[in-house]
Amino acid sequence: MKRIFTLSLVLILSTSCLAQQHPGAEEFAAKAAAEYDLDQETVMLLLQDARFKQSIVDAMSRPAEGKPWYDYRPIFITDKRIDGGVAFWREHEALVAQAAEKFQVDPQIIVAIIGVETFYGRITGSYRVLDALTTLSFYYPDTGNDRSEFFSRELMQFMVLGNEEGLPLSEVTGSYAGAMGLGQFIPSSYREYAVDLDGDGRRDLWSSMDDVIGSVANYLHRHGWEYGQPITYPAIVSESADMSLVAKRDFKAKETVDELAAAGFRSSIPVDGDRLATIASLEEKDGDSYHLTFKNFYVITRYNRSPLYAMAVFELSEAIRAGFEG
What we know:
By secondary structure, the chain is α+β, with helices and mostly antiparallel strands. The chain has helices spanning 7-14, 25-36, 40-49, 54-61, 69-76, 79-91, 93-103, 107-118, 129-138, 148-165, 187-193, 209-222, 257-262, 295-303, 307-325, and strands at 127-128, 173-174, 232-237, 255-256, 265-267, 276-284, 287-293.
């Protein structure tokens, strides 16, 4: 039997006077029905309610991760965000400790992720997720990297998620990229990694702090977080260093620390020579800085592929921990 959405939602959509036809909508609905067992007519009604947003196209064309590190870092490493993280951790200390123990993820990282993503819930996004994912599915900007197929599948996942979690799909808001809740989970991540830590039968990433904190921790755990292990250390670079080893897109640790040292990248902090690492570079005002990055750095990039993001999470987490323990 085809899955159906709530009757009230269908009635609202069927009477909408703002119906909009998106290019390829029929093909999308047929694919959603075939691959996700969604009701094709209801999918079309949802798409008719979805609005194209030029502001979403514009935002996708100039992401913050396109900035140099010296401009990106001040967005997140601020006194307000550090103090907010300390306050958030103290307010939810028992929950953070529970999630850190259950999922074996360092507590300051859980807090820092929420801090970078939504300023501890202050900024969760004002776009309707339905509009965001529809815009990026059918009108993805010409950036040289067409991700419309990715967002098309996220839109289908969003519709499935509505059934699973009882979400009012025409009302849910999030980021311009369709990420939701305090941890900013896209629909596929919500379905795969969100947890019902408070045991109420729903995975609520907006108002259940148990579920929010637990879901962020579970996401990192599932991607291989190593509790208590290093994330990144500054590298001392020799003049003859092999710059071909500097990672560009894939920050998976591949060479040993000893091998990198032999290639001209020595850790500024003593670390096991057999530990796997890679080299990341960040654009500073006076030239690039270089860093040995380990598996945990790579895990953070599973949340957001940018090394700038991972470094911001790391630096914020260290400042929050210092404030919390101080």
